[in-house]
């Protein structure tokens, strides 16, 4: 287990903080008060989507109630207020991931759209037949399928970095697979199935040495790790708001400005143009070039509020809290008879995948649901990884800032029930 | 086990999950279909032997959860000896029962009533109906069909 203390948006070391107060944080999340089949909700599906704190809900609601107008269009006051709120959210994202320039932040509908944008714009413009796109065996389908699609259109080839038995990338393969033909390396910062933290910097250095660009799927990293795109050395970084306590429907793409400036638009429409004539159109500079149509304005404001919320949390102590939950869950679940853990990397965030011998993950998920425990069961949109481990699916418990050890105890107890039902 | 759960995982379902009946490739089958649920990755194959309009034998293989496996197993025992039309009617009835729609008539073979608990777990309806979709595709198709729940 890593001892490194990390918290999103707070990369620097500081004085030792007080222990994280999960009980207090829980009060911010109205969704956690739900009762499921007569039991209190135990929400362990944070890697799918996290609950939203009142602060985020209220920021969206305030915007909709008092500032609702379109952005970048109106001369009227309300539109200017909406534009200011939207631009402020962009600046918050910039600071959150330490990008050098707010123009490097593009709002999208989420990680999937962000990755498709890179593939559809950068990939389509610059890939040639025989070029190689290197992904990994642990990618979520959203960081694999867009590359397969663009490879088919451009004649490029997709290759995959293998995963070892612990669920880490096989380091020996880096030099074999990242070579002179590599143009793009696309990888998850954190595995959505196993929580493995990948060595982005190490891979980025190799990729850059070959003249390739590095695209990082950060969807599972942003809720758990401080992200500094400059230190990571990546060229693109994609994430969604709804996995980091923000709303659905919005996410962002960070792209290095010099790259964005050379990229063609991804979608055409309003807001992304410079000058339009029937004979042809010139395009706005980034980020507007990549934001065709009315963006999810209220949601972007909600994302900004989620970033503010992180900043109010107690620094390093949150990372300690999540690592404690992960260590406790790994021990408690891992010692149950017939349980096999999938993914035991040294460096992990609070995501735990496992199997109960002889019981299909969906049946485990249903028995847990009957006790109010929400987990994800299935292939987690990572079928190549399932094949790598020779399994059809896993049960995944993923922990957020509001989870507590006693919830792990209920999970373990409910897993005992699984054994009782299925003998 | 709490109420809903014991309704769902009735002993007949658990029994068919542990020891599925007709779990084999069917010798002499003249109809076959693969069923696949892209949401969960569950897949199973159904084989039928048709003589005229009658299903004289049925079998299945594949991997899936307890609900889909037990449903496939019970289905093969139920449709054996039925005509195409009868099998189709049983499926329609079964579908109404697991989705909690009115009109699941009393004609439903009593064994299939064990799946009534599925309606309390909407996420699991497709598990129960996957083998039936495959059976229907096998009946309607010429030789080999592939059907998806999506």
Q: Helical region count of chain A?
A: 14
How many DSSP-defined strands of chain A?
17
Rg of chain B, Å, rounded: 14 Å
Assign an overall shape of chain A. globular
Oligomeric assembly: heterodimer
Can you walk through the features of this model?
The complex is a heterodimer of chains A (423) and B (150). Chain A has 423 residues and is α/β, with parallel strands linked by helices. Chain A has helices spanning 22-26, 54-66, 77-96, 111-126, 145-154, 172-177, 200-209, 229-232, 257-262, 297-312, 315-334, 361-369, 383-388, 405-422; strands at 35-36, 39-40, 42-43, 105-108, 132-136, 157-161, 182-188, 213-217, 236-240, 251-255, 273-277, 280-283, 339-342, 351-356, 373-374, 376-378, 394-398. In chain A, the strands form five sheets. Chain A has a seven-stranded mixed β-sheet with strand order 4-10-9-8-7-5-6, sandwiched between helices. A four-stranded antiparallel β-sheet of chain A has the order 13-14-17-16, covered by helices on one side. In chain A, helix 11 (315-334) runs parallel beside helix 14 and helix 12 crosses helix 14 (405-422). Chain A starts with 21 loop residues before the first helix and ends with a helix. The relative contact order of chain A is 0.18. Mean pLDDT of chain A is 94; it is low at 1-5. In chain B, a hairpin with a 2-residue loop joins strand 2 and strand 3. Chain B is built from five helices and four strands; from the N terminus they run H-H-E-E-E-H-H-H-E. Chain B is an alpha+beta fold. The mean pLDDT of chain B is 90. Chain B starts with a helix and ends with a strand. The A-B interface holds A 37-38, 359-363, 366-367, 369-371, 377-379, 383, 386, 392-393, 417, 420-423 and B 1-2, 4-5, 8-9, 14, 17-18, 39-42, 63-67, 121, 123-124, 127.
